[in-house]
Amino acid sequence: MEPPLFPRESGQFIAERSRDVFVEQDGVQKVAELLYNLRHSDDLTASGWKTANPLAPAPTSDQALNWVFVVDTMNFSFWPEEETQQCEVTYKGITYTGYMTLCAAITRAMEEGIPITDPTYFSQMSVEELGHVLRSDNETPMPMLQERHQVLTEGGRVLQEHGGSFRSFISRAGNDARKMVELIVEKIPSYRDEATYQGKKISFYKRAQILVADFWGVMEARGEGDIIDMDWLTMFADYRVPQALVYLKALRYSDALMQSLNNGELLSSGDRREVEIRGCSIWSVELIKDRLCELVQERDGQTCTINSAVIDFYLWPYAKKLHKEMAHIPIHHTRCIYY
After folding, report:
1. What is the pTM of this model?
2. DSSP state of 230
3. What pLDDT digit, counting tens, does each position of 220-231 carry?
4. Which InterPro entries match (predicted)?
5. Cα 128 → chain centroid
6. Does the residue 333 lie in any domain?
7. Where in the sequence numbering do the catalytic residues fall?
8. C-alpha to C-alpha distances, 277 to 8, 77, 85, 267, nearest whole angstrom
9. Domain count of the fold of the chain
10. Where are the alpha helices (DSSP H) in the chain?
11. Is residue 145 part of a domain?
12. Is residue 264 a part of any domain in this protein?
């Protein structure tokens, strides 16, 4: 059976055939200029990782890498059914929503003495135990508890079979980002974020790529971030970054798609429009990265070292920070374990 196209090639394949989502060259140029002006800031380096992950353990601790694995394995589907009914987790006096509820819940469990970053424990924990770890401060629970339990215990068992830690598991791929993604996808079924588009098998591998990028972020903070082929990674196709790309006019939705999303239509995983949103997001960020590197070469005479993962590390908090300004652009909603 033919293997799926990798994420970058998938993005290009989809963008060239898309009917409801379009990459806009003027917007691509505008975002490249925006990023060019930030090229010397920490926002566009792996050190931006700690800023984006304030609740992670200190990068030097042994638990940091297993924490990253636990969080990324359950990093999907945080959007609320009703905007007024958000799952909330308060940690050290700060109340978090969305993805940060997961980070806060895992770090809270560690402080409570629950060995949530130990694969021996989380590979066989019960649904009730995970429900306690992920408990909300209000009446709205974190969505998809059964699915989170299934993927976490499955992932834990894989780590147990490969040395008992995420570090020992991922070391089998050497220091190569592409091989790491391939290893994760091969060994852990819940990371196989694939679909079919116009008869072609394609892939996004959002969580597998973000797991590798987070691993890189931790290692970089330790001064050990010499991972090759980081440029192979694409942006992490989710529901937040596409909204930012539409806001920045690097992406455009058709009127029909806009209307469907504004009407609150749920898109199923693998729906043509959902695949187009994710694929065109990947391709627009690839074009932004290429244009940014051209600007750095033309204006500074230097080789650009900014990769798509770092651009995503910038765009995701940007979208979160400007969510009120972006409120008129609908987020697409898909309940699945992939993002």
Report:
1. 0.96
2. G
3. 888 888 899 999
4. Q_salvage
5. 27
6. no
7. 238
8. 14, 16, 26, 11
9. 1
10. 7-15, 25-36, 48-52, 63-73, 99-111, 119-122, 127-133, 145-161, 166-170, 177-187, 206-221, 241-247, 255-262, 272-295, 308-321
11. yes
12. yes
